[in-house]
């Protein structure tokens, strides 16, 4: 039995998520540079593979605990991705608390079919939002394939 994010999984249950090492490094560096507030951005690509990350400004009233992106920036990012044959496949953000597990606030924002990357304490973990998730009832751990 395999373990992903500390959760036991069979190969049948695991979800693979492909991302370039340079994107992981960029996200971790941004999180380290802002240790007291959540950084955030979009994951753009096809299916389960990230071809681009787009850092976004955290507009939350309390960025030390939450992240929120400007609606106009989100709409523009979705449109630009579609124009290039891509789509926004998920989000990334950091947890200054040092925990990479999705919070109940993350679950409230999650939509089925999206990937989430959460950075904390110089590590990153992947999650997939879908029905009957093992974390907060929506998140399934992903097996990150860093290329």
Written description of the protein model:
The protein is built from 3 helices and 9 strands, in the order βββαββαβαβββ. The protein is α+β, with helices and mostly antiparallel strands. The chain has a single domain, classed as 3-Layer(aba) Sandwich (Cytidine Deaminase, domain 2), CATH 3.40.140. It has a 7-stranded mixed β-sheet. A two-stranded antiparallel ribbon has the order 1-2. It is globular. About 4% of the residues have low confidence. It holds the Pfam family Prok-JAB. GO terms for molecular function: metalloexopeptidase activity; zinc ion binding. Keywords: Hydrolase, Metal-binding, Metalloprotease, Protease, Zinc. InterPro entries: JAB_dom_prok (IPR028090), JAMM/MPN+_dom (IPR000555), MPN (IPR037518), VirAsm_ModProt (IPR051929).
């Amino acid at each position: 039995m395999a373990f992903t994010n500390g959760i036991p999984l069979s190969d049948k249950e695991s979800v693979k998520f492909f991302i370039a090492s340079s994107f992981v490094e960029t996200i971790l560096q941004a999180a380290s540079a802002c240790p007291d507030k959540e950084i955030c951005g979009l994951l753009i690509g096809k299916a389960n593979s990230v071809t681009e990350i787009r850092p976004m400004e955290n507009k939350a009233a309390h960025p030390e605990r939450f992240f929120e992106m400007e609606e106009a920036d989100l709409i523009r990012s979705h449109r630009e991705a579609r124009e290039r044959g891509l789509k926004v496949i998920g989000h990334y953000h950091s947890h200054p608390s040092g925990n990479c597990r999705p919070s109940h606030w993350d679950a409230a924002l999650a939509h089925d079919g999206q990937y989430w990357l959460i950075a904390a304490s110089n590590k990153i973990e992947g999650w997939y939002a879908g029905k009957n998730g093992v974390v907060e009832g929506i998140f399934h751990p992903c097996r990150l394939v860093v290329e």
